[in-house]
Design brief:
The chain is α/β, with parallel strands linked by helices and 286 residues long. It has one domain: Rossmann fold. It is 40% helix and 16% strand. An 8-stranded mixed β-sheet has the order 1-2-4-3-5-6-7-8, sandwiched between helices. Helix 1 runs parallel beside helix 10 and helix 2 packs across helix 3. The chain is globular, with a radius of gyration of 17 Å. The chain starts with 13 loop residues before the first strand and ends with a helix.
């Protein structure tokens, strides 16, 4: 009897795998295949921070794996204090934990920074790459993320809103509507939800992003995988111009910039972006 294929992220089973002293929490869904799509999540995020509209669209035809970094959610250990260490942890999870030799990558924000370090160090591991809301190592003004983040968290507390409504979306009528809709979608899963990230772990991740932004650029010419880059035109966390920088430095990459949108442009425009991302990943496989 064939196993039922789960294509809803809200129903994806919670799993763990142990690699040496560490335990990684992950979820998987979609049809089984040899080369899955591994998702790399953003600053302060757990497994519950992925937009189900995007995950579900991709999981209709691709095998999707999401995971918690060490020290976050249901994973063990402490949050790594550098982006390249987080990439090393991801490599151990993927190759030793899951036994995979090749993956496709979907990444957002800090996840895109980790994914870049992973590809630069292990270029043969990644077949196809999606980088959204992110920028390159040494990216101009990336180190200003701390002031932007804490300022928006303060505003969210005053207005009793989710910080992501401020950090990810413009504060015009359309941005506010999109922000509330996005935050609402994140509550659709009701079982096996992760604990929120600790303040200490959040601070460690922020410092890692600042160090990434202030360090010497990586040689992105080693990235020969088909690459899709996307962002909003008014990203205040990782300046939109850095997406254009990535596009220039990764040969043959595609770039989508969504109008009148911020860091979470792909979530505001999910109805347009989800099928584009799904087709890109299907084409990479084909």
């Amino acid at each position: 009897m064939n196993e039922k294929v789960i294509t809803s992220y809200a129903q994806a089973p919670a799993k763990t795998v142990t690699v040496g002293p560490d335990t990684f929490a992950y979820r998987e869904l979609g049809p089984r295949e040899e080369i899955p799509v591994v998702f790399f999540v953003h600053l302060a995020a757990t497994l519950d921070n992925w937009d189900p509209r995007i995950i579900d669209a991709i999981a209709k035809t691709r095998h999707v794996i999401t995971f918690d970094q060490l020290g976050v959610g249901a994973s063990s250990g402490r949050v790594p204090d550098t982006i390249d260490t987080a990439a090393d942890d991801a490599y151990r999870f993927i190759t030793r934990g899951l036994g995979l030799e090749k993956i496709d990558v979907f990444s957002f924000s800090m996840g895109g920074m980790i994914a870049q370090d992973l590809v630069v160090t292990h270029p043969d591991l990644v077949r196809g790459l999606i980088l959204t809301g992110t920028g390159p190592r040494g990216g101009k003004d990336m180190d200003k993320v701390v002031g932007t983040t804490y300022g928006d968290i303060f505003r969210s507390v005053i207005t009793r809103s989710d910080p992501k409504e401020f950090l990810f979306f413009n504060r015009d009528a359309e941005g506010k509507r999109a922000g509330k809709a996005f935050v609402e979608r994140l509550t659709e899963r009701t079982v096996d939800r992760d604990e929120k990230i600790s303040t200490r772990a959040f601070s460690t991740q922020l410092k890692a992003i600042v160090a990434f932004g202030r360090s010497a650029p990586s040689d992105l010419s080693v990235i020969t995988s088909p690459t899709l880059i996307a962002n909003g035109d008014n990203d205040r966390m990782v300046p939109s111009i850095l997406s254009e920088d990535l596009h220039r430095r990764i040969a043959g990459s595609e770039l989508i910039i969504y109008p009148n949108s911020g860091h979470g442009g792909i979530f505001q425009y999910w109805e347009e972006f989800a099928p584009v991302a799904a087709k890109f990943l299907d084409d990479v496989r084909a």
